[in-house]
Fold each of these.
Amino acid sequence: MIRWLTTRKMSAVWELAQGGSPGQALRIVPMAKVHSAQLDLSWRSLEARLPLDELPTFHRAFLSWRGVEGAAEMPLRRVQQRVEAELNKWVQSGEASREGDDLLISRAALSGFSAAEHWLIPLPD
């Protein structure tokens, strides 16, 4: 049995040791950090590809995908704050890296986020 746990300080996997029963032999295994070469997507460039009037809907979809409750009813300013908070969680867990005002992530980090799929298609040269 594996359960995911996300906290402000870290993301971890709770794993039962083999042969253990619930409540026994629990250990925390930190999530693997993403190698910097895999950080191939700029969050700001992803946002820039969206039409401006679609950005709030994209951000709300991102928050819902990340499990933030009530994202659809949040005021826009609060949505922006929560998106930054979620991005910071990725940085803290090693799944992303800050580069100035931008955030570098791997495309794999957005796996399952259907609202981003169209915008992840490379632009033709």
Amino acid sequence: MLPRWRLTSVALAGALLALPVPYWRTRAFGSLSVVHVEVLALLGLAAGWVVLDRLRSMRTPAGWAALAGAAIAVGGWLVWAWLGLGQGVGTVLAVSFALGGLLRGREAVRSVTSLVVITAVTTWLTFDFSRLLDLPLRDFHLYLGAGATVLAGGSPYLTAPITSTASKDQLPFVYPPFTLPLFELLASVPPLISNTLWVGASITAVVGALWLLGVRGRWLVVLVAWPVVAQGIAVGNVASFTFFMYALGFRVGAALVLSGMFKVQSMIPSLWLVVERRWRQLIAGIGVIAVVAAISLPVVGHTRGSPGRTGSCISRRVWPGSLGSRANRSFAGSVLRSPCSSPPSPSPLP
């Protein structure tokens, strides 16, 4: 009879494998249904786990074992594509084989718990693999669109309420004005460079956050492939950087405040600084945000080729559209009043 903890692991693995069953007719990746992807992912993961486990049992150096696993995955995918057997099948098998090798347990700790990990990753691949290719970097391109709008002399913020959006790549820009200089800079370079810099920085931020939380070795790769993380990187969301700030906050309390520079709700964990009475860290974080905002104020909304615009005029062009109610905009207009004869009309979102 299985010990209770092993029986629990088997039950959990079975429950994970059963999750996609109600969607068995749904198309998941190319011409493959959800169940097809699940079966292929499970086979690939099991094959990768067994092959890498055998290589390590023969005392193959870790580097050579990893290289062999990568060669098998890539080589298998190329052969499959060359034979014309369907790239969808070959892609799922290759990716799951590579992940299976990463999940291989150490010789001394092989157990039924590995089955839980394999089935969990199977479910990830089944539900989320195809979503990684859905409008790649769509969020980052929204940020670039905001930067390009400001460079063109317009405001990236909404000037009227919206009732619906046509697609995920046409959402409004909702981040604070002091983030705009960064996106102006990225919008001013070729897309290949900006995309590469953003994706590289996002992966570095996520890996750094996981490292700060104690994750090491192959599990860094596995957790970067976790849909919660991988999808954020794939769409280019700023959440990768707020995650790093959150993880850093355990060592540097001010980082908890800085994590809210893009998303205000990310600042909620900074209440811990209040509870712990870490006033210096709290004030330091608020001070950094205030300095960044003050430095960016003359730059935000700067119109290329329009000499004579003052900082106050630039400020009025960007801020009021993001302040919400008519009362707030009226207040902002009185505070940020400038000598400009008339503010330029905002450009529509790209």
Amino acid sequence: MLVLPWTQGCARRVRLDAYALPGDGVSQFPAGSSFSVSPNPGMPNPIFDRMVKEKIETALRASGFQVNETGAQYELQYDYGIEGREETRLSKVPGPFAGGRYRFVGGMGFDNWDPLYYSTIVADTYPVYTAHLRLRVLKNGQTQAPQEARAVWVGETSTESDERNLRELIDYLIAASARSLGRDTRKPVDVTVPEDDPVLKQLRGAAPAAPAASPEGS
């Protein structure tokens, strides 16, 4: 059986690398800080991009922050994607029968026949998909400054799967990012997002509702 290293029981492992701007004093955004989330114009799937934007807003609110379209203290930008590759794993399995041997058992004098097998090395090739999300927080109120100068925090997350399913994996990446918003991890770290993570549960309930049907004749 193939053991997936990126899952741990009822949890998923996410690699997180977060940067806070040195000298800015932003080690953690105070509770109640306000953010505006900027969409990505020109995305090939604008429906999914809108879903990601709404999920990020949901995670911000679940983490104690405000979301304002205008007048927010910070602007949050995001980008995401998924790439695939193939990996090969070697395993040892019983090979062809190679005879056997008698083994003396206990004091009764019975012999036991132990069959002997060669060991065979088998190579299994399987797909691995890496989903990634990058969040960038920019400080508002500095309209003349370039975006690079306004950046106060960047968080990068990734996780792997044997299925190309970004719409499911994105929830884990957003939940992991929300934990470290405003913090500097100082190095890449692995975090575990359990299925009962409060933000993850909020995200899974954040799918946009279907539009209400219009009355007949309207």
Amino acid sequence: MIFTKSVKKIFFSIGLSLVFIGVIVFVIFFFFFPKMHNNHNANDDNFILRNGKLIHAKINRVITKKNITDNGINPKVINYQFKDSNKIYDDNFQTLEISRLDSLEQKDSIEIYLYKGQTLIREISRYETDLSLFWLLPILLCSMGILMIFISKLLK
């Protein structure tokens, strides 16, 4: 089958556009994803538990995140206030441990560990939204673009 030069140009242009968009999306994700969530992991949490100081905090509110579901459970965000070095700080903690939160209400006191500005609620595990799937978008765009450029070169 013989293709015209315009068909080749269309394939090449679409492929080049997809690669360009993929690179732009990658750059945006690279610079903005670290700012979108706290990069906590289990090692950080264990370090805070071992080295942090135990202090009391007051719960301001508990919010259910209805736009996220993990195994049918919506995570809850605990907003709390604590005092350190005569300064008052606010922080948030996201968790899936709903059963432990049922008894907590606004103005209740909870124990938290504090280490260099990072906090961890005692005996409640942290929940982080997994954003790694978003990295598939620029990879997919670039792959499709490279494939279209390759096809444009193969067309006769």
